[in-house]
Design goal:
Layout lengths: L4 E12 L2 E12 L3 E6 L5 H8 L7 E6 L2 E2 L5 H6 L2 E4 L11 H5 L14 H14 L15 H14 L4 E5 L7 H16 L3 E5 L3 H7 L2 E6 L2 E7 L5 H9 L22 E8 L5 E5 L4 E6 L5 H8 L5 E8 L2 E2 L5 H6 L2 E4 L3 H4 L7 H6 L3 H4 L8 H14 L16 H13 L6 E5 L7 H16 L3 E5 L3 H7 L2 E6 L2 E7 L5 H9 L3
Parallel strand pairs: 3-8, 3-9, 6-7, 7-8, 13-18, 13-19, 16-17, 17-18
Antiparallel strand pairs: 1-2, 1-4, 4-5, 9-10, 11-12, 11-14, 14-15, 19-20
Helix pairs in contact: 4-5
The structure holds adenosine-5'-triphosphate and magnesium ion (MG).
Adenosine-5'-triphosphate binds next to strand 2, helix 1 and helix 15.
Length: about 500
């Protein structure tokens, strides 16, 4: 390992209207090193990465490459200096092909502006192979899952043949095997002398891949540690600035539930969901486990009326939910927090307040037809406080919030709905820091206690095991196994998911 940093950010500060995102931060990375960035939601990690990428320019401080301060004011500048970035919020073009996304802005040409398609696809295939993605490079990106799009984003960064690759939560949507492939790739990159900057909320990942860890808190660098010389407890303490209460507050019971279930699903079938039957009582938290592509997200979408179903019934409190109408589903008391908050849920150009109260506008307007604005504002303010959402004000645009805080706003939308009966959460803690995670678990427990039937689709087994009264395992669109809380283990869930039983 070479000791001189390839890339340094010296004493950088960056503020946005209403937020000081970074304050006098020093950060550097050496050739062949993996330097991780850790911090709570809104700590400034993505802002630092975006400065490296030339998306933002620092207000103060220097961008130093190979010991020389350089002006970087555009993504082009950063790329020319050999810095390439995998962004947290994927910045791809859904209407273009996978190959075109990999080489976006750098398409191989046969002269006279004609794209060399054969070469484009050949080279794209090579990088897709490197990240373990087996899709036809000609596929339109819009058809890919979030995980696949994330891999395309990584392939794009690789194809730039960079000296520095920064990855902002590259594994947030990836499955276990895909993560292993990525780790292998990171190892190869550092063996080749590439400097890697790695952002993740998953501490076990940081211990696996990183050599050094820098911790940010509220825009300031609070510590830098050699990975070998620190442990999870210390990192969490540094990150949140205090000792953390237990991560999983809920102790699921398997109580006897008298009476009819609140949610009854029978023979539900859609393009990706096959003959699914289950029920959930008021106050129960039921988990859905399975591998990527097992049909969990599709089940959630079908229940909420976003996807068309071809057979089966969904009943809430005995009332049948009309097919393929999320408006009716909402009216009957179903709430849904999607996996891809950007594409399916949040109105990014709108405010925190408006996003939170979207599902209760009818109630807020119940007297006359005008929305009661002061009630709306006070609900939004209370909720921001209760969920500790980091926003300048309730009138801030959601687009300007950090990733984890956007997720909280999405959850808040349903928490404020008083007549909520069923809440469906798809990967509720994706991109959420440890501290906020435990808050979200607490919230879910509180919601269940109020008598809501909660469904949790999650890839994180510890999360399911600790929150859920029962866990169903899905495979190929079907429910293949079910476990009570007291009989479920990681091994059983994995083996059911893989078809081992
Ligand atoms: N374009 C912007 N306009 C206004 N404020 C912004 C903008 N981008 C970031 N911020 C603010 O800067 C702070 C740092 O945000 P940043 O996205 O860097 O956090 P993060 O550490 O990446 O968080 P997460 O773990 O949630 O991704 C937050 O308070 C955020 O609201
Ligand atoms: Mg971020």
């Amino acid at each position: 390992m070479n000791d001189r940093p390839v890339l340094e950010l010296r004493d950088v500060s960056k503020s946005f209207p209403g937020a000081l995102a970074l304050e006098n931060v020093d950060f550097d990375v050496r050739a062949g090193e993996v330097h991780a960035l850790l911090g709570e939601n809104g700590a400034g990690k993505s802002t630092l990465i975006k400065i490296m990428a030339g998306v933002h320019t620092q207000d103060e401080g220097e961008y130093v490459v190979d010991g020389r301060a350089v002006p970087v004011t555009s993504p082009r500048d950063a790329r020319d200096l050999g810095v390439s970035v995998v962004f947290q919020e994927l910045s791809q073009v859904a209407s273009l092909s996978v190959a075109e996304n990999v080489f976006f802005g750098r398409l191989p040409s046969r002269g006279a502006g004609v794209v060399d398609q054969a070469r484009l696809h050949r080279e794209a295939r090579e990088y897709l192979h490197a990240v373990g993605l087996t899709v036809d490079p000609a596929t339109r990106l819009g058809f890919l899952s979030v995980a696949q799009r994330q891999l395309v984003e990584i392939a794009r960064a690789l194809s730039q043949d960079a000296k520095v690759i920064a990855m902002d939560e590259p594994t947030s949507a990836l499955s276990h095997t895909e993560i292993e492939t990525l780790f292998h790739l990171v190892e190869q990159l550092s063996a080749r002398g590439v400097a890697v900057v790695y952002v993740s909320h998953k501490l076990d990942e940081l211990f696996r891949v990183s050599d050094r860890i820098t911790v940010l808190r509220d825009g300031r660098k609070v510590a830098e540690r050699d990975t070998e010389r620190t442990d999870a407890d210390e990192l969490i303490r540094l990150m949140v600035g205090r000792e953390l209460d237990s991560l999983f507050p809920r102790t699921p019971a398997s109580p006897a539930h008298p009476g009819a279930p609140l949610l009854e699903v029978e023979g539900l079938t859609s393009a990706m969901v096959r003959d699914v039957t289950f029920s959930v009582h008021a106050g129960e938290v039921v988990g859905f486990s399975g591998l990527m592509g097992a049909g969990r997200t599709e089940l959630a979408r079908a229940l909420f009326g976003l996807d068309a179903t071809t057979a089966g019934t969904v009943r809430v409190g005995g009332r049948t939910v009309p097919r393929h109408s999320s408006v009716q589903a909402t009216r009957l008391g179903i709430g849904y927090v999607p996996e891809d908050r950007k594409a399916d849920g949040l109105v990014l150009v709108s405010t925190v307040r408006a996003n939170m109260t979207l599902a209760i506008l009818r109630r807020l307007a119940h007297i006359g037809s005008r929305v009661n604005r002061s009630a709306e504002r006070s609900i939004a303010r209370d909720t921001v406080e209760r969920l500790r959402i980091k926003a300048g004000s309730i009138e801030q645009q959601v687009a300007a919030l950090s990733g984890g805080n956007q997720q909280k706003v999405m959850l808040a939308r349903w928490l404020v709905k008083e007549d909520l009966k069923v809440l469906i959460l798809d990967e509720p803690t994706r991109g959420i820091d440890v501290n906020s995670k435990s808050e979200i678990y607490r919230l879910v427990a509180a919601i269940a206690e109020q008598g809501v039937a909660v469904l949790v689709m999650s890839s994180e087994l510890p999360e399911l095991l600790s929150m859920c009264d029962r866990i169903h395992v899905m495979r190929d669109g079907r429910i293949v196994d079910g476990y009570r809380h007291d009989e479920a283990t990681q091994e059983k869930l994995m083996s059911s998911a893989l078809g081992g039983r």
